[in-house]
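Input.
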Amino acid sequence: MTHVAGGTHIGPVPIVIRPATLAFDPSGTPFSEKFGDVYHSAESGPDQARHVFLHGNDLPARWAGRRVFTIVETGFGLGLNFMATCAAWRADPARCKRLHFLSVERHPFVREDLAALHSRYPEFNNPSAEICAAWPPAIAGVHRLHFDGGRITLTLVFADAVEALRDLRLGADAFYLDGFAPDRNPEMWSPAVMAALARLARPGATLATYTTARSVRDALAAAGFAVEKSVGFGRKREMLTGHFAPRWPIRHPPPLRIERPERNALIVGAGLAGAAIAERLASRGWQVDVLDRNGAVAGGASGLSSGVLQPHLSRDDCILSRFTRAGFLYEHSRRQSINVYGATLTRPPCGVLQIADDSSHEVRMAADLAAFAYPAEYAQLLSRDAASSRAGSPVRAGGWWIPMGDWARPAAVVRAQLAAAALGETPAPRIMLHREVASLRRLGERWCAIDASGVEIASAPVVVLANACDAARLVDFAPAPLQRVRGQLTLFPASPAAPRTVLCGRGYVLPEIDGNIVIGASYDLDDAMQPDDAGHAANLHRAERLLPGISVHVDMMSLRGEVGMRCVARDRMPLVGPIVDMARARQIAESLSGAHASDMPRLPGLYCAIAFASRGLAWTALAAECIASQLEGEPLPIEATLADAIDPARFAVKRARRGTL
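Output.
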């Protein structure tokens, strides 16, 4: 496979994230040299967090008895507000079942500096260790971390505040406004930021901030917040508290809270996508049935012996690159911080080398990497000699080094995720094999999975189709045709030429696995499920271009192969989310001429997670978190721009606008 610039580009190229520098003012208080302001009161950062933000938002009283409570913060800084909030949540017997804390930060600290700062607050030693272990690299975008068995979720958005807040999809119950002082960082307190916060506010949402600046009060009032002065903390006599009380109708309200009397779901498909969805729903207390027509889990393409986990880098940072980066980092975070996959899958990554095609391509790769200034833990440029040293064998050219990249056994990931789904408070998922769903039937508030003889296999109010191209047999996805693309792997006995890392380019070569070298993968538009000589020859040619000499001593008679069928959508992006009611959409086609995805009618309780092409390892965990968040009414783990790019409605929207539904 190849990863080159291209794909659909939507929106501006993401900003380069410049980490904060570690500094202190004369009193020893953490200080921002960029903004000329302290990160918290000189009296006490933790006490300021409790007085201003928790008490200012009437917490913990306001989250009592809720299933989900969502806090949005402007300015993560040292994370003291988050840690103080988590401490209050853990100590509260009437706490909400799930706490979501989303924070926008333009200049995050790197992990080492954050840990050094946290050492000044010994009351937070334990949560600090967890946060720093899971801390993401300083890369623009949304980063989701889970703590306390998933009951606390921290979503970090590394971006400019206005752009980030406008591109979020959530309903907020409380706001912590904690940027640097308005006269030092006026953009953080601008009317545009307050208007963006108002778009996220649920009715009655509260806010608190340490500042009483007139410009802030006016901006909040103009956005629909009623504010008043309260007793401040330390040397600040006053602070602001308030609540969302607009005097005008809200045209685009935030997502409503979702109350489900029955938290059961059917998942059709027991591959990477189905297992990830089962684990994410089980972590939220759902009872799950997983149906699959094969005789074992991971019976389709997820049953291949190995696959590659890597990001997609491109010059224009297209939608494909952005979503793949988000999925790659989320998958890495899941492995590192929660250990959901067990010890067998948490070995240190071997890394991925993305080899240039030639010297001119290597120059372009260098320019691309320099433009984005990615941190070294995410991507580096290596010369041919340095890349050869990493690989342990001479490679064709230099290229990108992805330290967190790796290979994995998809079937092992599937089994581990299903095992993790059995660890929650609800009964373990019921795995039903040799059960082919012939049709889906809506009866009242439930979906029934029916077999070929007309007998009901199982039923639930929610069904998630995770069965690749076979989903189109059960639901009208028109006009979103799915394509089956054949992929063949080639295996042969390992030799001293085997690389120590994954090599990628126009194909890939994996390190020795069980005494074999695995190379791949073909991209064919036929249905042959048996390996063929043409596929082996093409794979060997691709491998030879990456690692010259790898195939010299290969005995062609020793070659073995595996074949899997990829499910690929027209735009190469997955389909993740609620499914369009095409019959209803055609009935009201005239009213949809200017439609957006949110305007399309949906089949109640019917979702899909399909078309993962060759990126199932990088995409499915994030896709599963998206669906679980949608079902629970929680903040999405990705920007709205990316959510729209994977929405199953996107093809229908295009046709509706053209009048061709």
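Residues 1-12 have pLDDT under 50 and may be disordered.
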